Amino acid sequence: MSGHSKWATIKHKKAKTDASRGKVFTKIIKEITTAARIGGADLNGNPRLRLAVDKAKEANMPNDNIDRAIAKGTGGGEGVIMEDVVYEGYGPGGVAILVEATTDNKQRTVSEIRNILTKGGGNLAASGSVSYLFKKRGSIVFEKVEVEEEALTMAAIDAGAEDMVSEETTIEVITSPENFETVRQALNKQGFKIANAELTMVPSTTVKVTDEQAHKVLNLVNHLQDQDDVQSVHANFDIPDEIIEQES
């Protein structure tokens, strides 16, 4: 969707420089623990854990914190059981929103998510209401000023990428979930500077929003992202880059 790669890059930069680093660490630790519990402690055999550990290192999380989170997930430490949950809803202008969270208390989390959506001009929806609009894909984003587009395109195709999305200031390489890590490593080894890389939910259709409504949508998404249990927020908005930049 238009603006998606720009928004992904801004979120990535915000997470790395967030003054409330304790909150960033808490989210990453939850993801590491859950990934280790589901897929084990071997980074080579657990792509979700490897991605979470990479995010932890980018945020300058101490290795001891990473090790404790992995141990907790594999039964080597005490603590509550975390589980993955997905909430669906709508934002201003009918924008579809998909919220992925990791929580030890689903009742608390759903109450807080509902409250944020309502205050932001949206509403919580039943399971299945919007999830069919999204498909899991790998997203690898590059700033145009940092790469040579033709060379990147050829390298991405050779590595197994599914698609390329060239926008005003960014280039997004789209992969299948299975090929995400292979493509990411191949492009990284060839010296292409990655601005953001993640497994995400890509919408099949988008809703164009501009002006004040666009700011309301982005404000809502920001508030959802700031909720302690939320790991990622996906939405099918089509918002101009200049408005996204204003919200960064």
Task: Characterise this structure.
This protein is of the alpha+beta class and 248 residues long. It folds into three domains: 70 residues, Arc Repressor Mutant, subunit A; 92 residues, YebC, transcriptional regulation domain (Alpha-Beta Plaits, 2-Layer Sandwich), CATH 3.30.70.980; 70 residues, 2-Layer Sandwich (Alpha-Beta Plaits), CATH 3.30.70. The protein contains nine helices and ten strands. Helix 2 packs antiparallel against helix 3. The longest helix has 19 residues. It is globular, with a radius of gyration of 18 Å. The mean pLDDT is 87.
Features:
single chain; 248 residues; alpha+beta; Arc Repressor Mutant, subunit A; Alpha-Beta Plaits
Provide a count of the helices: 9
- What share of residues is helical? 40-55%
Total beta strands: 10
- Distance, first to last CA: 18 Å
Please give the CATH class of the largest domain.
Alpha Beta
- Please mark out the parts with pLDDT under 50 across 5 or more consecutive residues, or reply none: none
Strands side by side in the biggest sheet? 3-1-2-9
Provide the CATH architecture of the largest domain.
2-Layer Sandwich
What is the CATH topology assignment of the largest domain? Alpha-Beta Plaits
- Overall shape: it is globular
